[in-house]
Design goal:
about 400 residues, Rossmann fold, ATP hydrolysis activity, 13 strands, alpha/beta, ParA/MinD_ATPase, 2 domains, binds magnesium ion, single chain, about 45% helix, binds adenosine-5'-diphosphate, 17 helices
Amino acid sequence: MKALMISRDSLLHAEIAAQGSARMPPVQLVASRNGLRDAVERLMPEPPALVIFDASEVAPGEAELVERLSKHYPSASFILLTREAQQDLLIRAMRAGMREVLQLPLVHRAFHEAMDRIEVAAGVSHMRDGKVLAFISCKGGSGATFLSTNFGYALAALAERKVLLIDLHGQFGDATLYVSDQKPAMTLSDICAQITRMDGAFLDSCLVHVASNFGVLAAADDPNHTVDMKPEHMDTILRVARQHYDYIVLDVGRQIDAISLRALDQADAIHPVLQLALPDIRDGRRLLDIFRSLGYPTDRTRLIVNRYEKGGKLRLADLEHALGAEVVHTVPNDYISATDSVNQGIPVLQLSRSSAVARSLADLVELVTARRVSESKGLFDRLFGRSEAE
Ligand SMILES: Nc1ncnc2c1ncn2[C@@H]1O[C@H](COP(=O)(O)OP(=O)(O)O)[C@@H](O)[C@H]1O
Ligand SMILES: [Mg+2]
């Protein structure tokens, strides 16, 4: 999108240029003007699609120029940046049809959200608006990596959605190995090191492709900490990922660090994975307490009990009572299928389609995508070669 920037502030100009060029499609600052008067006196021969207007230094007598500016560029979208609320100016801007007003200093996320709205309104992008689903292990070995990777594959295969899995383990991430024998050429830390290149095509080129619509971004591999990974990088990665994938599945691991926390903040649902055993329940409780203290809404936390066996001493109801949260899904204990899959690095749905654990993953796909049972029965049966009557 070609943009005109109106500002005297060269730092702000550089900041917006950097943020804009990281977008897909990029926002290009093709011209700049010093202020409102300069902008209306030196009109662009080819009208810009976007005008980014820093209103923090508008002189009192200049406010009326806002209407003139918008009349000159009737088809442009406007973003107004203000340092403090200038009521007179804001009212004029609103009357002139300028809808996006952002507070300075610039909050990058707010800028990108405004750009997303503008692009959709202008028909520039067909965003997927992907959902972020996190899986987090309450205790090591609960099965978060196994479930997140295999669930990602199942979503892609059964619901035919475009899925990205991001391995957020700070160290020793192994998610790719669960579903692939390919060695990742790029990792999360490599992407952070080249964050200015981030767009849909770059992200895609960094993945291990397990299926045409399922890619995995390998965990950071940077033992010497040469890359300065920042939480803001996560914002950029998820923003681009949401535009290009229907679902972004996160394998968070047990350690929550600044990077994974930023990802969790933005997750649409968090699935703590635990087994029906006291140590898991204890750790699960700690985790849920952390989420509560972070102010995460309770309905965003969706418990999954893995390796569930009926008839044990502990019941699901005991766990729900202890955690004060509902279990949304259980995955049966299926040692042979799970171990075979993990050892061979082949998704369990591909390796043992009719196994109990594969069926449970299909149910979870149904739950998450909220497909109607009858509809998905057809889908499931088509895949598993069963007739409706069975
Ligand atoms: N439903 C299941 N039934 C049987 N074994 C399972 C099941 N889910 C996971 N496993 C096994 O548990 C092991 C640990 O799982 P993993 O996903 O690595 O745990 P985490 O990532 O939570 O530390 C895996 O090797 C896998 O074989
Ligand atoms: Mg793991």
